[in-house]
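Entry 14. Structure prediction run on the chain below.
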Amino acid sequence: MTFTNGYVVSLRSISFFIFEYLETPISILKRYWKHLAFRPMQEEIIASVLKHQDTLALLPTGGGKSVCFQVPAMLMEGLCLVISPLIALMKDQVEGLKRKGITAVAIHSGMSRAEIDRLLDNCIHDHVKFLYVSPERLQTELFIARVKQMKVVLVVVDEAHCISQWGYDFRPPYLQIASLRELMPDVTVMALTATATQQVKDDIVDKLAFRKGFEVFQRTFARDNISFVVRKAENKEKKLLEVLQKVSGSAIVYVRSRKSTVALAELMTRKNISATIYHAGLSFQQRTQHQDDWIKGRCRVMVATNAFGMGIDKPDVRTVVHMDLPENLEAYYQEAGRAGRDGARSYAVVLWHEADRDSLMAKVKQAHPEVSYLKKIYQGLANYFQLAEGSGEGESYAFDLHDFSERFDLHVQEVYGALKKLEEEGLIQFNESFYSPSHVTFHMDRAALYEFQVANEKFDPIIKILLRLYGAQLFSDFVKITESQLAKGLRVSVDELKAELKHLHALNVLIYQPVVDSPQVTFVLPRQDADNLPLNFERIKTRRKLAEEKMEAMVGFVTATHRCRMQLILDYFDEQSWEICGKCDVCVANRKKENQVEAKELQHEILTILSSGALTSEELETKINPTDTEMFVDIIRDLVDRGELEYDDVWKLKLKK
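Output returned:
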């Protein structure tokens, strides 16, 4: 097309210009996420970022935090740098973006220097849109040198509560994020979290050096569709089975130990309730399979430690049960909030007895060991990995917690607490479950590789099959490979194939990173003298006191009998509300007292109907059709507790003889 002024413009360039010009947040959402509308508050948060205002967004678990930065980043010209402490979540988000056709990479502990080097180069020279990094990587010379060459337009701080020592999951490396502002003072910063008290919110704004005119967005912590229920029970396993019988649908049961996941899942299976388990000690394949079985409904109940749940998108979870008291209300609220994301009626249940208070106190004590014990464990790590002082910075090592504990005659739980505290102090990173599939990239360019093939005929088949299966990307990026697939194509054993890849790696033809599926310890700093560890003693003391206060708040929550559970949660997060939820066990109990006649009539109706024969709770509810469902469920519980009703072998309610 020729204009009168003499310029020649192709129709393709005009259509591209118009397409780009018309792009909006909603068009990006529809094109990449296939959603027709934003969730509450997402659009306002995105608008704030697009106006280049520093932004703090507090959205509940499952509230769509990632969309709040991914959508505006797609409308900005340049790279979005995302800082996150959760390796599994980073990997999930990167894979999710790639499936949408969006370029994204993640850099974290457990990667080799060569792999990090290649990926950072790609962020400078290629059109990578999202770069995910763990906070520990920010201060490395390699990262600082490369990030200066990148066109970063947005810095996103996920799990932003980690920047505050008043938060429940403080991580000192987060304090270094503000130094990025010195490297790129004009870049917009966005902070995201699901839970934060006012003190933590103020700390986030301060520590990230938010600029004047920043915005804070916060959805209410209230969850209108969740009934928060606390039950004191001597036999928690029996009470759990009753809960799962009363409330149908998908469920998560949280326990503290790996051993308990197995025992409870076996108990449920014996009672014809399909259950599977999840904890950090399972292999990657096992975790993936169990998670998939649960998400797709092949299994009803997931029995898990707190290693499960982050990044899980299952909207129809009807019940979340805690068999042990969480350490704090932040952790509890996040885990309980995995129920009812579809907006339908759901239940968050805590089962406890008096001994749990002492158990929780012991756990908090283990999580905050004395400084002398921290030094002992750090020296043990140095001996275990045979590290000399000054070495090991940024290096990751496979770690067997039980083997380490046995070798040095230590208690596993106490060692675990010390490792997490050393991580909190910024000395190491401890990943309980780390999985990285096998990766390969060519170290040579095409011309040099061709010369090598001609001179080394025996390696020609493996190089050809790599090129055929994975293509040109092998010259610019690390590519995930499946050794069994390659071995089958070459008609050799997997061991023979691995040997050839290792040989090519030794010859600098390619870089081969074999699969890793084990816990990892990464030395964030060079190995220190254990007697002179750079520990912040005052902070350690303050953090121990804070943990004890948070534990007391958790105990206060479960022991409260007169105040609405939702009000207690809102009050903890500095959100005032004079309205009661009307659905928690306290509200239902209060309503029963106020409506004693109605409660007695409902109780009488239940006993009369069951005198004619046993029924499931669902069948009984259908027959009665109560106006107050919560009161109906609560009365059944009371009748069972008092011994007037019992469950038979097929979980039908009947009169107790």
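Residues 1-9, 11-20 have pLDDT under 50 and may be disordered.
Filed with the rest of this week's runs.
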